[in-house]
Amino acid sequence: MSPDTEAGSQDLPLVNESRLVELANELEDSDLVAESLGLFLAEFRHRLADIQSALRDESQPASTGAAIHALGSPAAMLGLDQLAATCRHCEHLALSNSADITVAVARLIQQAEQTKAAVSDYLISHPNGPT
């Protein structure tokens, strides 16, 4: 992905409520979607710590890519579109052993913090999941 692709992620929603409604319909369980968002938040700090730890070991770019994927995959499933797109971009940089990965991960962490706040706000306003 190009830097333009990452920049385009800013046009995506932090929390794609349409995706959450779709997921609730697929699962036939709005509460499960809310629980999944809560689990995402519970694992959030651990996932970021894993990314930072893997990034410090420059000899293992695949580990960095895997750590980023572990954050990005559930983000994509849960409609956290901006974060998912940024994770895909960073994962690509990590796997290609790009020198830009450190700066990109710093942006990823900022994006993740914004997403965490948006998910928390969403759960406050939708405690039983999407309706």
Notes on the structure:
- This protein is an all-alpha fold and 131 residues long.
- The protein has one domain (14-125): Four Helix Bundle (Hemerythrin (Met), subunit A), CATH 1.20.120.160.
- The chain has six helices and no strands.
- It has helices at 3-8, 17-27, 30-56, 61-77, 81-95, 101-125.
- Helix 3 packs antiparallel against helix 4 (61-77) and helix 5 runs antiparallel to helix 6 (101-125).
- The longest helix has 27 residues, at 30-56.
- The protein is elongated.
- The chain starts with a helix and ends in a 6-residue tail after the last helix.
- The model is unreliable at 1-5 (pLDDT under 50).
Summarize the structure.
The protein has 131 residues and is mostly helical. Helices cover 77% and strands 0% of the residues.
Tally of individual helices? 6
- Looking at CATH, which topology would you report? Four Helix Bundle (Hemerythrin (Met), subunit A)
Q: What is the CA–CA distance across the termini?
A: 35 Å
Main structural class: mainly alpha
CATH superfamily assignment? HPT domain
Spans of 5+ residues with little confidence (pLDDT < 50)?
1-5
Strand content: under 5%
- Total tally of structural domains: 1
SSE string, helices as H and strands as E: HHHHHH
Helix proportion: over 70%
What is the number of strand segments? 0
Main sheet, how many strands, which sense, barrel?
none
**Overall 3D shape:** elongated
Residue-averaged pLDDT = 92
CATH C-level category: Mainly Alpha
Q: Which architecture per CATH?
A: Up-down Bundle
Rg over C-alpha atoms, rounded to the nearest angstrom: 15 Å
